[in-house]
Amino acid sequence: MKTKLILLMFLAFTALNINAQCPFTPTITSPRLGAMFPDKVVFCNTESEVLSTQTYDSYQWYKQEWDWQTPNTNPWVAIPGATSQTLTIDGTNDMLYYFKVEVTQANCTAQSAEIMSDGYAYGLPAMMTTFTPGTYEQVGAGEYNICEGASVKFENIYPVVYGNHTWYKCTPGNIPPVPGDPCIISGATGDSYTATETGFYGFYACTEYCPDQCEFLGLGGFQQLNFGNWSFCGLGTDETKPKSNDLTLYPNPATQLIYIGKASDKTYKEISIVDASGRLMIQKTNHQYNQPIDVSALTPGAYIIASKSAEGKVYRNKFIKK
Length: 322
Description:
The protein is mostly beta strands. The chain has 3 domains: about 20-120, Immunoglobulin-like; about 125-230, Sandwich (Immunoglobulin-like); about 250-320, Immunoglobulin-like. About 5% of the residues lie in helices and about 40% in strands. Strands 1, 3, 4, 6, 7 and 8 form a 6-stranded mixed sheet that branches. Strands 10, 11, 13, 15, 16 and 17 form a 6-stranded mixed sheet that branches. Strands 21-20-23-24 form a 4-stranded antiparallel sheet, with no helix packed on it. It is elongated, with a radius of gyration of 33 Å. The protein starts with a helix and ends with a strand.
């Protein structure tokens, strides 16, 4: 009995050695494997993809469901009937799975390195908005007043992923886009667009990798711009503008309340407080020189306060909010 056990152990050890020393290593290939990432097949949701390996005596394909954590604790499962040289996967059933193949040749068994089926390698569309400091104020969620003559730049956050764009200046009448829609900005097909007039801006874009797979930003991601000669325009923080610092402002720095003014001015037609980026934070009208201004809600930092007297004289002073 002991001799038989030793013999079985020897045979098992020999088999392991043979497996470890197979003179071949199967590899998986496919038309899209490595096109974007070395170990991933990225293909369109509506397409299928054929995985293939070299010629061997037998094959068994396996799949493992993706897991966000490392190491992946999901089991490898033999795919029923997947015993040929090729395996067809598709964007409906096989997205976010790992695949590998086990092959046998001349009584030697070896496995390939795993690859992943990933059609979600692109990010859903998102838009970044860039303003010029001192030329805008936010008046609501996704809505801004912009100074006439200024511009606002919109950009797709994922420019590498998306190719052809359709940019809109108002709510589109149809998705996907239909030629002739008056909301489509003619000739605007790139990753960015610079707006100089009032409109409701957003885009529809097709993935560069899958030209037929397109995504709409969604109206919730659109931005409303209202261009005009708003009262805050020209206040800004441009250090080249002339400043008048003979206006009393105290305390400075301030934590809660500040006072501004000269008794001779009595009333200020308009008071505006802007932050370092030029964004309007507080605005008051018909302000009495001895009334407090509550700045407790402001984030600590440097601010400009612009005051216009009843006679039209403009003062600009800096103060620090602690």
